[in-house]
Structure to design on (607 residues):
């Protein structure tokens, strides 16, 4: 019976799970890759058809443009011929008003135009139809064509497009102006769309096998600024945003939730993923003609579900073979494991007993295979371990004693160093006090007192290190409180000025404790000297907030000028504080006025 927690069962189960995992991984890798390749192939087919249709549209458009140029020259020729005919007749007659006669009027049946007579200053004398030239009269020049387009705001409308031809009537020193409405012979896109419709509809039908989506031509205003969907149910046929070609089978665009900006960004690029009628869709946007006022685009939209049905299921053929191979591998592995794990189980039992403390047990497995060699090596290792354990115990005992003695010796030596430094600094303080007693000048005494207090901070620091159990860290609460007491005694202000402290129980090494002590000494001394007229109160606080420390020293004295920059002042005391703060605490001194002077330093201890 195979135990579920035995090594062979676990390894067999592990290999079984690994096989399942690899089989799953195989399907997860192969199937998506096959789908991806087939999807890519289908997209390529669709894009090729779209490309061919797009090129066909462009070719027809170029042909239309060429035909338009030829027709434009033909129309100019008709207008020019009629103008010459009329002016020649008027030059033969004595009166320009004979133009009212039909024989003097524009006679071409291909186009209907208006005839006007202007004086030498280009003011209207006579017209068949009312028309104003006031805005552009200076542009009307002899034997010259002038075209003027007045575009309205709608994309589907051309507005007013007129062609003017001016001819001078030399005998009367007047001007004949023939003005023709271009839309009478060429409406926007009409001829173009009539020529396109038959051929382009055939191209549209090429994509019918791939989708039930939409394919259409559309003019789009590229200057739309909002981010709303292009199509709205409230849109009218005449609008400022878009216009569908008459080749399309519908009046409004099928763009779903796409915005004009998204459509413009997708021109001649990858298809856009979006929703159309609540269904996932792909839309290709191809350019036909682009100018600054309108884009002429070819759009093809395919529903994703129609597109995906073309992705085949060829991977199904490999599933049965893969599963059969997997189960054959399991059977073969089971036979091999049963033979292989007999020796492994013996090794496992020996290792288990050794772990419990039976150091005299051995596996005694015979043979020449890898497991037998491993078992012999294991038995030899047990022999060696048993011999070395006793030797190692003795060596550890000797080394531990040596290390303990060395550590005690170093701690004693370090304490002695701190003690001697403390004593030397204490002697220096006493010498300063002795010198002070001999000096009468108050300014000199104050200077010596200031030096005395800075040395006291150093002496106190080494005293605390000497007294501390940890020779690297100083308890700041006792350290700062001792500084405050000594300063009060040195300046004889016990009855006038009180110092209150709120110091958190934190420990710092000498690199941070010493500059803090010097800064506090300098700020309190400054308050003693300048903050109070009579009585006063000083507050010292040190708090820890997250990874930062906040030192605050404030008094209820008269304070400093609110606009003073304490980091850039000529005062020696503030220069000392600023230099210590910047150099050793990597911070800066902040000053606030709160019913007295308030100094703050926020710093971080770098490990």
């Amino acid at each position: 019976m195979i135990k579920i927690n035995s090594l062979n069962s676990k390894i067999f189960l592990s290999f079984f799970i690994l096989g399942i995992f690899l089989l799953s991984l195989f399907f997860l890798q192969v199937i998506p890759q096959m789908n991806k390749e087939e999807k890519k192939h289908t997209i390529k087919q669709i894009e090729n058809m779209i490309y061919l249709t797009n090129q066909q549209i462009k070719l027809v458009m170029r042909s239309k443009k060429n035909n338009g140029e030829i027709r434009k020259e033909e129309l100019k020729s008709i207008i020019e011929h009629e103008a010459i005919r009329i002016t020649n007749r008027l030059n033969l007659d004595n009166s320009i008003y004979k133009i009212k006669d039909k024989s003097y009027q524009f006679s071409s049946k291909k186009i209907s135009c208006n005839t006007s007579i202007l004086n030498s200053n280009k003011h209207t004398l006579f017209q068949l139809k009312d028309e104003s030239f006031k805005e552009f009269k200076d542009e009307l020049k002899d034997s010259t064509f002038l075209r003027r387009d007045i575009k309205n705001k709608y994309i589907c409308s051309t507005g007013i497009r007129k062609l003017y031809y001016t001819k001078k009537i030399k005998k009367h020193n007047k001007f004949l102006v023939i003005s023709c409405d271009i839309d009478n012979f060429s409406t926007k896109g009409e001829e173009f769309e009539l020529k396109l419709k038959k051929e382009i509809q055939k191209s549209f039908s090429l994509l019918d096998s791939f989708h039930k989506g939409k394919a259409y031509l559309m003019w789009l205003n590229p200057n739309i600024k909002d981010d709303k969907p292009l199509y709205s149910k409230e849109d009218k046929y005449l609008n400022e945003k878009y216009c569908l070609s008459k080749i399309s089978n519908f009046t409004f665009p099928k763009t779903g939730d796409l915005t004009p900006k998204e459509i413009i960004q997708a021109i001649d690029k990858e298809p856009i993923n979006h929703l159309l009628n609540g269904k996932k869709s792909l839309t290709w946007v191809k350019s036909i003609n682009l100018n600054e006022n309108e884009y002429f685009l070819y759009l093809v939209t395919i529903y994703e579900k129609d597109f995906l049905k073309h992705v085949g299921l060829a991977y199904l053929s490999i599933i049965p073979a893969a599963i059969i191979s997997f189960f054959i591998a399991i059977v073969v592995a089971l036979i091999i494991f049963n033979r292989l794990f007999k020796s492994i189980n013996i090794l496992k039992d020996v290792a288990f007993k050794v772990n419990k403390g039976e150091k005299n047990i051995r596996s005694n497995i015979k043979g020449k295979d890898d497991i037998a060699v491993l078992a012999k090596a294991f038995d030899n290792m047990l022999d060696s371990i048993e011999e070395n354990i006793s030797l190692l115990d003795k060596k550890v005992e000797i080394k531990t004693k040596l290390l303990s003695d060395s550590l005690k010796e170093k701690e004693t030596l370090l304490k002695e160093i701190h003690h001697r430094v403390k004593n030397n600094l204490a002697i220096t303080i006493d010498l300063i006090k002795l010198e002070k007693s001999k000096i009468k000048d108050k300014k000199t005494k104050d200077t010596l007192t200031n030096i005395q207090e800075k040395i006291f901070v150093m002496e106190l620091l080494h005293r605390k290190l000497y007294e501390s159990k940890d020779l690297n860290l100083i308890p700041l609460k006792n350290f700062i409180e001792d500084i405050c007491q000594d300063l009060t005694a040195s300046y004889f202000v016990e009855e006038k000025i009180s110092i209150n402290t709120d110091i958190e129980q934190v420990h710092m090494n000498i690199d941070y404790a010493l500059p803090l002590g010097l800064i506090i000494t300098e700020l309190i001394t400054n308050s003693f000297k300048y903050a109070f007229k009579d009585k006063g109160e000083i507050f010292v606080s040190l708090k820890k907030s997250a990874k930062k420390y906040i030192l605050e020293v404030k008094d209820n004295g008269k304070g400093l000028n609110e606009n003073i920059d304490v980091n850039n002042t000529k005062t020696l005391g503030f220069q000392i504080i600023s230099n210590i703060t910047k150099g050793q605490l990597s911070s800066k001194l902040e000053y606030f006025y709160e019913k007295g002077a308030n100094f703050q330093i926020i710093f971080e201890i770098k490990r």
In short: The mean pLDDT is 78. DSSP finds ten helices and 17 strands in the chain. The chain has four domains: 43-184, 189-314, 357-471, 472-606. Residues 43-184 form a domain with the Beta-Lactamase fold (CATH 3.30.450).
